[in-house]
Amino acid sequence: MTQLLIVGLLVLLCAAYWLQRLVPAATAPFWRGIAGALHNTRFLPGLRLKAERLSSPSGAQGCGGCKGCDKNGGCH
Amino acid sequence: MSTQTPPLAPSQAAPLRVALVGNPNCGKTALFNQLTGSRQKVANYAGVTVERKAGRLLTPAGRKVTVLDLPGTYSLAATSPDEAVTRDVCRGVYKSEPAPDLLISVVAATNLRLHLRFMLELRQLGRPMLVVLNMVDAMRKQGLDIDVPRLQAELGVPVVTAVGVKRGGAANLLAALDTPIPPAPTPLPAGTDLHHEVRRIMALCVARTSERRQALEEKLDRWVLHPVWGMCILFVLLFIMFQAVFSWAQPFMDFLEEAMKQLGDFVGTLLPSGALQSLIVDGVIAGAGTVIVFLPQILILFLWILALEESGYLPRAAFMLDKLMASAGLSGRSFIPLLSSFACAVPGIMSTRTIQNPRDRMVTILIAPLMTCSARLPVYALLIGAFIPARRIGGIFNLQGLVLFALYGLAILSALLVARVMKRRDVEEHPLLLELPNYRLPGLQSLAIELWQRARIFLSRVGSIIVTLSVIMWALSSFPAPPAGATGPAIDYSLAGRIGHIMLPLFLPLGFNWQICVALIPGLAAREVAVSALATVYSVGASEADAASQLTPLLANQWSLATALSLLAWYVYAPQCFSTLAVIRRETGSWRFVAISAGYLFGLAYGVAFLTYHITRLITG
Amino acid sequence: MSLRVVPPLSLQDWRLRFGIKSAGPVDKRQNAELHVKSSQGSQNTAWASLFCRSTPIKQTQNILRPLQAEQKHGHGHDLELRIILNIECYSTVQLDPLPSRIKPTVRLNQLPLRSAGVIDHIESLSPSDTIAQRLGELGFVPGEPVKVIAFGPLGGDPMAVEIGFTRFALRCAEANRVVLKDMPANPNAACPAHPHESSHTTAPQA
């Protein structure tokens, strides 16, 4: 049972990762929630900044889900 | 350009904003690395710096400076998008980029005649500027000496010397940045012949201390640019490159494969059998492991491309192949973006910004995905390894290497044909006008840094994209579990199995089975994932713990040769990469081009795979 | 696309034959501007239509007639026939009735391998010729010595030239814009002539 739970959680995490990559707009409410919860608190300033950034997805970042390409001219 | 990163945030004491401007091949990028310490591409061919690059530095006296590295250009009369950026930033009219406080004009001392002209053109803008006389060490080797104080007096702007490629070579520049900003020079009267002015200044300031020598370029170019020997050299270089990808990498790959197998076995004994063990072993290790194995091949491919790039050979190859490109209606300039596309189509498409002619640029963008990018290598390597015997042909050639070479050749040939078809109505003149830079020994350190970065990018992809997709694939192929008393393999009842069976009618004419259909879907995110997806699908299907390392013999048993060749042909063409389509959208600014490229690539892939499958079946019976 | 005159030119009836080497078949009527000038400044311009491959352009006769008269009076001139299609392409033809008296302009693409020349000027093909402008910015300016380093495989296009310490790859159409100064002596006396060199650049001077 515990095994199934862990497996389910891992699979969900991976699915969320891909949802974030492909449709950042769909995960925006989640990040907005995090940002709201962390607002005016001193916990996890890094996470708060990230949540604030991701809560309003603006345009395409990088080149369509490829994050490495601007750094060094290559994503593969 | 749409790819603006926001300007650097102003710090408490507003930092000095300077911009590096100069001709291509003036050593600007190396100098930028010296100044800011940020590692980026140091290449030798004209127009590598197409992205906006900014960095910060602290001068010895503690002054904060932000440095902008502008794309190299020969003149402020821009003929390509990246030159237009330089022009607009220097004039201070670029949107979202305030005019720099100080222009640093980088001038290669070895090529003063050309570079001083552009420097004088910049000077005409009447902005505060500073001249960096770069590569003074190479100039002395050429037997020239420059009277720097005299030059400074003639130009009316401060001049400092630098050696961009040597540690501490930018010390003079750093010291100069601590002094107050020099006053803006008074422009020469309008209509002054800048070339004339350059000649006048050079006659006054440059002295020859010994005989002129440029022996290396002369000797090498005699062979490298020779109509016959040059072609042979080019062909041999490319051929060795593909042979090396297969033969040199083999021991490392065997080692990695064995290590992955051991890891799978070890984790298998560590965890109690059940869903979690299956996820880790069949999903994560089988998925990521099959892709990690290809790291040595990818690094060797990059090693070659980087070494060719840094040595200054690439523009020469563009020269040799210009006629071939012209027959496809393109110019040799398109060669460099296309060669970069062998590593990845994304930077290749981005580097098309150096092509002046808009139509040439569009066609180059459209055919860039046909170049066999490194992500296709794992797929090719897996299938070739499984179906092509590792025989020696004529004693020296490896048959597998030959097939790989043929696949690359097929892609290039198709690209030329496609370009030809697209350009059939085009009768404009296509300029080449390419600078052939001096030869340089590729720096081992910079090669190592570049390779390490490639390895890091590859591994981080394995860690993020491939592992997560493998987990999702595993879940899709494991759930829902087969009903009690089911007879067939479990995967037939799973979601993945169902999706595969739905797609099957479309791909059956190509000889694909439903496992391949399933693997095609995650392959859209990254081509190499198809390999790990196959591993997951087969290992779950076969319910064998260490199936990851046995994918090769498994495929050899389960597929016919026709299916394998058909899949190879499919992968030569298929528009299987979201990143490429996204970057096409960004660079062309139109969905139409995305639709055109996806459409024609899909059509080609389907058609050629269909033909390959049926012809192979006819031959093999 | 480039136009190339196919020798031999039949000068008796002033009919020129044009071989059209085009990127695709010339199936449509193309208007061509024929522009003829002699070194003494007589000029004539006319429009002609090219129909398809190798169609003789009859109109050429009318353009050349006044110049022909000049020729008959014994001035051996340098005649230049330039054909500008409505698209940007062109060719220069040396009409050569009295070879011994002709002093043809040598262009960069006519130089033999490993020989040098000095730039006289850059010829713009149109008022907004960006290629000619770029050539100037790359240092191809009057008075600058240039040296041919290599010719590309298959037909000698493109070519590599050295100017100062810089080497450039140019297509022949680009190099054709670079007009060289007359050399006092045979420039390639010391080096072997390049195989794809035609005879007229090394024509002896009277």
Question: Layout of SSEs?
Answer:
The complex is a heterotrimer of chains A (76), B (621) and C (206).
Chain A (H helix, E strand, L loop, with lengths): L1 H21 L1 H15 L6 H10 L14 H4 L4
Helix pairs in contact in A: 1-2, 2-3
Chain B lengths: L15 E7 L5 H9 L16 E6 L5 E6 L11 H11 L10 E7 L3 H12 L5 E6 L1 H6 L2 E3 L1 H8 L3 E3 L9 H8 L15 H12 E3 L6 H10 L4 H19 L2 H21 L4 H18 L2 H17 L2 H14 L7 H9 L1 H6 L7 H10 L8 H12 L4 E2 L3 E2 H24 L11 E3 L7 H35 L16 H13 L6 H7 L8 H14 L8 H8 L2 H13 L4 H11 L2 H30 L1
Parallel strand pairs in B: 1-3, 1-4, 4-5, 5-7
Antiparallel strand pairs in B: 2-3, 6-8, 9-10
Chain C lengths: L1 E4 L12 E4 L8 E9 L4 E8 L8 H14 L6 E7 L6 E4 L10 E2 L8 E7 L7 H8 L7 E7 L7 E5 L2 E5 L1 H4 L2 E3 L26
Antiparallel strand pairs in C: 1-2, 3-4, 3-5, 5-6, 7-12, 8-9, 8-12, 9-10, 10-11
Pfam family, one (chain A): DUF6587
InterPro entries (chain A): DUF6587
Protein name (chain C): Fe2+ transport protein A FeoA
Structure description:
The complex is a heterotrimer of chains A (76), B (621) and C (206). Chain A is built from 4 helices and no strands. Helices cover 66% and strands 0% of the residues of chain A. In chain B, a hairpin with a 5-residue loop joins strand 2 (53-58) and strand 3. Chain B contains 26 helices and 11 strands. Chain B has 2 domains: 16-213, Rossmann fold; 235-425 and 445-620, no CATH class. A 6-stranded mixed beta sheet of chain B has the order 2-3-1-4-5-7, with helices on both faces. In chain B, strands 6-8 form a two-stranded antiparallel ribbon. Chain B has helices at 28-36, 81-91, 112-123, 136-141, 148-155, 171-178, 194-205, 215-224, 229-247, 250-270, 275-292, 295-311, 314-327, 335-343, 345-350, 358-367, 376-387, 399-422, 444-478, 495-507, 514-520, 529-542, 551-558, 561-573, 578-588, 591-620; strands at residues 16-22, 53-58, 64-69, 102-108, 129-134, 144-146, 159-161, 206-208, 392-393, 397-398, 434-436. The longest helix of chain B is centred in the last third of the chain and has 35 residues, at 444-478. Chain C folds into 2 domains: 2-99, Immunoglobulin-like, CATH 2.60.40; 106-202, Roll (SH3 type barrels). Chain C is 13% helix and 32% strand. Mean pLDDT of chain C is 56; it is low at 1-103 and 184-206. Chains in contact: A-B, B-C. Chain B binds chain C through residues 74-75, 77, 79, 110-111, 113-114, 117-118, 142, 195, 199, 214, 217-218, 221-222, 225-228, 230-231, 315, 318-320, 322-323, 326, 329, 331-332, 356, 423-437, and chain C through 1, 22-24, 87-89, 130-131, 133-139, 141, 143-144, 149-158, 160, 164-171, 173-174. Strand 11 of chain B pairs antiparallel with strand 11 of chain C.
